[in-house]
Amino acid sequence: MDIEKIPYPDMIIFDYGHTLLYEPDWDSRRGNEELFKHISKNPDNVTVDDYQRVIEQVYGKVMKVRENENCDISSVVSDRTAAELLNIEFALTPLERQIVFWTAATKGAVMPEADKMLDCLNEKKIRTGVISNIGWSGEALKERIDRLLPNNRFEFVIASSDYMFRKPSKVLFDIALKKAGLPPEKVWYCGDNPKADVEGAAGAGIFPVWYDNDSEYTDRDYVPKCEHLHIKDWIEMVKILDKL
Fold first, then answer.
1. How far is it, in rounded angstroms, from Cα 19 to Cα 7?
2. What are phi and psi of 110, to 5 degrees?
3. Rounded CA gap, 240 and 231, in Å?
4. pLDDT by residue (tens digit) across 47-94?
5. What is the pTM of this model?
6. Which helix (H) or strand (E) holds 110?
7. Are strands 187-191 and 207-211 parallel, antiparallel or unpaired?
């Protein structure tokens, strides 16, 4: 795309997974073992294996809904369903339960140069935010982002599970624009998914940036059918902003 035609942004909104952060060494069993240290009611002597089996069944149904209907169900609902099926309780709030499990399953890690890129945006006084297709709540997601990217100045963190709709639905982008108080032509959206992130943003009138990193999750067989900025790393985007 001709750089001279790219509008300079007042705000840049980001995807979460494999855009800002990623989740190496994921182990759900490790997360559930940590969760079971906080069990407060277990009259039937349910084991971690029992819980793992039921939670996988519940999440299997949730995944089918996500794939077929492009909508989300909060992990809070899924967790409660599994726990009540097994007649167990935890001495944790729903938010604490998400954080305990998620942190044990994977502590998370920063995508290359994402922290430096955000520092540059802060220096340029470009506002920032996050929209993520994710089952965790926005509060749990914000906790993770703040822990791993402590210098961020995200004005909002929008999780699809809190709103039911998933990208590429226009709904989450429209909500973000309302929160920002900006028209779409003043905003960029950056993500690794060519359909959900790039085409989704374009459908809302937001300028899309395809962060085509080298992760195994990038869909290289599909090229977005809309005008977009195509980058391979975050420093490349900073250099482009310097030229605009």
1. 21
2. -85, 135
3. 10
4. 999 999 999 999 898 888 888 888 999 999 999 999 999 999 999 999
5. 0.94
6. strand 109-110
7. parallel
d(CA 80, CA 68): 23
**Residues 198, 99: Cα–Cα separation, whole Å:** 29
Measuring CA to CA, how many Å separate 166 from each of 46, 99, 195, 202? 34, 22, 12, 15
> What mean pLDDT is reported for the chain?
94
Matching residue, tokens 């996500």: 66
What is the bridge-based pairing of β-strands 127-132 and 11-14? parallel
Q: What is the mean pLDDT of residues 214-234?
A: 80
The sheet with strand 207-211 has its strands ordered as 154-159, 127-132, 11-14, 187-191, 207-211, 229-231
Q: Please state the rounded mean pLDDT for residues 157-176.
A: 97
**Residue 83 dihedral angles phi and psi, to the nearest 5°:** -65, -40
Yes or no: say if 174 and 204 are a contact pair by the CB < 8 Å rule.
yes
Give the pLDDT confidence score for residue 11 in this predicted structure. 98
HEC secondary structure over 159-171: EHHHCCECCCCHH
